[in-house]
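Minutes, project check-in
Item: structure for the 333-residue chain
Input as provided by the requester:
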Amino acid sequence: MSNTNWADSGVFSLISTLKPSLVNEFRYSTTFWSNRNNPPTAEQCPDCLGLGGAHFTVEGAGVTFGNQTNSPQSRNTRRHIFADNVTWQRGAHRFKFGGEWEYLKGTGTYSLDVPADVTLFSPAEVRQLNPAILPLVPTSFKTLADITSLPLVRFTFGVGDVNQPPAFQRDETGRIRFNGHESLGAAMTEEIFERLRFSNAQTEAAVAAVKNHMAFKDVQHMRVATLRRFLARPTFDDEIELHRVDCLGSHGLLDNHAFLLEKREEFSREPLIPPPLITGRDLISLGWKPGPLFKRVLDAVQVRQLEGSLASREEAMVWVASRRDFVENGDLA
């Protein structure tokens, strides 16, 4: 592997004597680090086995060759630090105080399992696990073709943009975060689907799945009404499958997935979103004037309908009529 690093740094300091007993020191420092990690070329590694190809591992045999699974990759990191300190001499005592502000920005690329990561069974494992296919295994391994004829354990390859995601950032502790990536991902999805000329319906479904995928982490804390609306979305089947593979590709926990399947079964005895108990005509019959408030009131009634506290039109009418003064003041409690 070829690893190239280049860095530079600089410091500027200005010390000012404001009074014989008062001194201010301002300091600015900057650093830049560039790193390139690439697979070796034919000139750097002549006659190397598997040069430029997939990363191969033969289990239990101590044999590994081919591209590293995390190359090529690159990064450019810039750090700017501003510091200011004041020293004050008072009699026999010296006080020093100040502050520091640091700005760090990094960009780069990261390839994973490119072109592939392949794990093979060793001859010893074949002999132990499935001796019936042992005659198909070469008796000697002199070429790459001999090695790659071993039975496959697993095969992984990376797809997608190798550039650092636009949502990349670091929090105050230095931990890498991708806040807002669902909105950025939805915008990127929409652009790609439009460029590939998918239908409007297909584009809207894909964008919704990407934009809503982070909502799954909160499903066990949702109100019943919110959960029923969540399950009733037309793209839910695609979204829950996306959630499943998303979890399996990261932490592996499927508790929210199981919870949603259980709730969908529980709610299947009746429509997830039943017909509304009342409409705008009912509000007009109570003497209300049509306007933006209608939607808020009807939404509030539907929430209580979905949660079971209102079960009939009569109950809904009584609830609305008894809260008219509160509603007109903006309170729907």
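Outcome recorded: DSSP finds eleven helices and ten strands in the chain.
No further action items on this chain.
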